[in-house]
Amino acid sequence: MSQKATEARHGKAEGLDMRAPEDILALLASGQQDAARAVDAAIPALAQSADLVADALRSSGKLVYAAAGSSGLMAMADALELPGTYGIPREQIVLLLAGGLSSHGEMPGAPEDDVALAETDAAVIGQGDCVLAVSASGSTPYVVKIAEIARSRGAKVVAIANNPGARLFDGADVSVLLETPPEVVAGSTRMGAGTAQKLAFNMLSTLAAIRLGHVHDGHMVNLRADNEKLRIRATGMVAEIAGIGFDEAREFFARGDGSVKVAVLLAAGAVDADVARELLDRSGQVLRKALTELTMTENTVKCA
Q1: Of 22, 173, 195, 231, which has the highest C-beta tally within 10 A?
Q2: What is the pLDDT of residues 108-117, one digit of tens each?
Q3: Helix/strand/coil (H, E, C) string of 129-184?
Q4: Sign of CA dihedral 17, 20, 25, 27
């Protein structure tokens, strides 16, 4: 029997298939909750990882997700959300998923062992990039190979795995151990391990976005407002942050070409959108710093 924790049998799974449906679901829920708690111990490593991600994106490097199987689905969910939620350019986000997804929505298992495929896929990685390499077992050949290639090219590597002593951790810049307990259904890492990975990705990418200045007082101020629901949400952010009415906020949002940050600066007194963008550029795209500079400038003018 494998000694990996992700393959071990759960102590309460004996006779699982003979229990009442409610009892089975209660055990499954408990297993997910236990797995989620494993993220707490990884918080320091996730904080370091977020800094590496933010540094790469700020310097025009790429954020590369490398994964296979269920871990790949967790990675894909995170990667696909970032452009819309935080306005991160799509060309700066790369998803390397072993074998990809077929037109039938299936995930073939064989590609996760394909080292040659990993070498081909890793061609996109370069110096200045940050690679999030994730594998529940920590030994998936495809993911391990991509991490090795990334290191050799000067990219930063964040290794995320659910087993202590995972091979994936060797040489990584940051090792994120999500030490989840055995799955209720042994080896079904889409469950507890996947839950912990999803939480870790949520936390890591959100903190990176905060570091990049894309969050202000809990608002996603760099979102891509490309439908009516999001335009209304964005306008509401402008109204709340600037302390103005919704209709007035809508006007500033339109003048700011759909940028919450620019609209807030216009509402705060920036002469025009170009001046607002210059303030943001000088502040490293951090709205709070830009607002502070604008206020100081206005006060200086008044005192002169």
Answers
A1: 195
A2: 667 888 999 9
A3: CEEEEEECCCCCHHHHHHHHHHHHCCCEEEEEECCCCCHHHCCCCEEEECCCCCCC
A4: negative
Cβ atoms of 188 and 259 closer than 8 Å: no
Write down the catalytic residue from 91, 106, 112, 298.
112
Q: Which tokens is 231 given?
A: 């335009």
Predicted confidence (pLDDT) per residue in 260-287, tens digit: 999 999 999 999 999 999 999 999 999 9
Active site residue 112: yes
- First-to-final CA distance of the chain: 79
CA dist 23 and 19 (Å) reads 6
- Is residue 81 flagged as an active site residue? yes
φ, ψ of residue 39 to 5 degrees: the values are -70, -30
User: What does the DSSP 8-state code read for residue 128?
Assistant: T
**Centroid of chain to Cα 191:** 19
DSSP 3-state of 243 = coil
81, 248, 251, 293: the catalytic one is 81
Closest CA to 30 of 185, 184, 202: 184
* DSSP string covering 97-108: ETT---TTS---
